[in-house]
C-alpha cells in the first residue's frame, strides 16, 4: 500500500472512532473536549502507532485502535492547554476551546481528555504487562511534552538559546509523543526491547524533523498553504532553529518582531537564504529523518516498515 | 492502633516519600509542581488507600506507597488547576502556584503531576492485571473530578440547584477521588470484586460527608480554626448544601454575598440554625458517613477496618 493511501484510510477510521466516542458529547465539558478532536487533523500519531505495531507483528493492528486514539486524545489535550497559554484564538479552522467556553472549562476539557487517554490505552486488546509498560511510556511522554512546552515559553524571554537547547526543547515538545506513539505500538504488539527502543528512536527523531519542517513551513509557505499567517514565528519572536541559527550568524531578527508586508517577508527570506540559514535548517531536518530511518534497520522488511520510512521522508518534504 | 496515630504516622511517611521524589526539584516547572505538594496537607487519600489495602490483605501495605503517592499527586494537580480557575491566591498557608509562577507554568505544573500520578501508580508492587485496573480507576476518577469541578463552576451562575444536583456535583468533585483511593487500595492488595465495590462505596460516601463537613466548617468555624475567612462560601455565592437548603426554605442568601462583620455572620448562623438548616446539613453528613461505614460490613474485622470506620466518623466530627 502507498503511504498516502494508508494515511488517508487511517485518518478515516480514526475520525470514525472519534465520532463514535465523542461525536454526541453530552454536557458542556465534553462538548468542549470534543470540539478540537472532531475538527479534523491528520491523525499522524495514531497512524505511527498502528504502523509500528503492524511492522512488529506483521499483521493488522485494528485491535489497537483504542490505543491509537489515546495518542490523539493526548495530543489534543496538549493543544487545548497550549492554546490557553499562547492566547491563540484559532486552530484547525475553528475557534480555540477557551475562546468559546472560557479558560476554566478549557483547562478542564484538556484534563478530561488527558484522563480519557489513559482509560482508552487500558482498554486496548493487549496483555496486561504490555499495557502497564505502555501507560508508563505515555505518562513519561506527557511529562516530557509539559517540560518542552515550558522550555518553549521560557525561551521567548531569552536571547542565548543554543542549537542544543533548541534540540532538547523540540525533542520533548514534539518528539516525545511521536516516540511514545511508535514505541507503544511496538509494546502492545508484543515487540522485544530492541524493537521497542528502535521504534522510540524512530518516533523521537522523525518528530523533531516534523517540527523543524513545521518551522520552515511557517516561514516559507503561503498563508493558504499553511493555514496560518506567514512568518508568525519570527513576528512573535519564537526561538525556532531558524532564529537560533540567524543569531549565531550575527543576523538580528528582533526588528522583524512586528507586522510585515508580503514583500518584507520575501526580502527577509532572501536574507536568510543568502546567509545559508534555510539550507542549514533543511539539512538539520534531513539528518533527523535519516537518523529516524536508520533506527528501523533492526526491523525485518515489511510493507508497514516501508510506510514508516516513507513517513519520515514525508515529514520533511510536506509543504503544509 | 488509634486512628490519629495511624494518620500521623502515614502523614509522616508520605511527607518523607514526597520529599525524596520532589524535595530537590530541578527546574522551574518541577519547582512549581512541588510547591503545594511539599507545603503539607493531611495526606488523607494516601492513608485511605493504604488502610483499604491493609484491611483486605491483613498486613502492611508499605509496598504500595508509590500508589498512595499517586493519589496525593492527583489531588495536588486538581488543587493547582482549581486555584487558577477560582483565582485563589493562597492555599496551605502559601501563595498558590499561579500566583508565583504565572498561569502557563501553573497549568503545566498541574499537567506534570497528573502524568507523574500515572507513572507512580504503575511502579507500585502489584501484579499487572491489578495495575491496569487501578489505572482505569484513577483515570475514571480524574474525569469525574473534572466534571464535578465544572458543575461547581456552572452552579455559581444558577439559582435552581437542587439537593440532587448538589449531591451529584460533590460525589464527583470530592467523592470520586476518595472512592478511587479506597478501591485502588483493595485492587492492588488483591481484593475480590465485592470488596473493591464496598471500598469504592466507602470512599465515595465518606468523601461526600467530608465535603459537607467542610462546608459547615467554612460557616461555623473561626478563621483561626479553618485557616480561611469565615463564611467565604456564602460571601462568594457558592452553591453548598447550606445554600441549597436555605433556598428550599425560602431563605434568600444573596444579600449576604458581600463582606460581613463577625456579628453579621453570627446572626446569619443563628438565622440558619433557627430554620433548622444547620441540623439538616449535619444529619445529611451523618447519613453519608453511616452509609460509608455500612459498606464495609463485607470486610472481615481487623484493626485497619476499624480505623477506616473511625475515619468516616472523623470526617464529620473534625472542626478544621
From TrEMBL, chains A, B:
<dbReference type="GO" id="GO:0004337">
    <property type="term" value="F:(2E,6E)-farnesyl diphosphate synthase activity"/>
</dbReference>
<dbReference type="InterPro" id="IPR008949">
    <property type="entry name" value="Isoprenoid_synthase_dom_sf"/>
</dbReference>
<keyword id="KW-0460">Magnesium</keyword>
<keyword id="KW-0808">Transferase</keyword>
<protein>
    <submittedName>
        <fullName>Dimethylallyltransferase</fullName>
        <ecNumber>2.5.1.1</ecNumber>
        <ecNumber>2.5.1.10</ecNumber>
        <ecNumber>2.5.1.29</ecNumber>
    </submittedName>
</protein>
<comment type="similarity">
    <text>Belongs to the FPP/GGPP synthase family.</text>
</comment>
<dbReference type="GO" id="GO:0004311">
    <property type="term" value="F:geranylgeranyl diphosphate synthase activity"/>
</dbReference>
<dbReference type="GO" id="GO:0008299">
    <property type="term" value="P:isoprenoid biosynthetic process"/>
</dbReference>
<keyword id="KW-0479">Metal-binding</keyword>
<dbReference type="InterPro" id="IPR000092">
    <property type="entry name" value="Polyprenyl_synt"/>
</dbReference>
<dbReference type="Pfam" id="PF00348">
    <property type="entry name" value="polyprenyl_synt"/>
</dbReference>
<dbReference type="InterPro" id="IPR033749">
    <property type="entry name" value="Polyprenyl_synt_CS"/>
</dbReference>
<dbReference type="GO" id="GO:0046872">
    <property type="term" value="F:metal ion binding"/>
</dbReference>
<dbReference type="GO" id="GO:0004161">
    <property type="term" value="F:dimethylallyltranstransferase activity"/>
</dbReference>
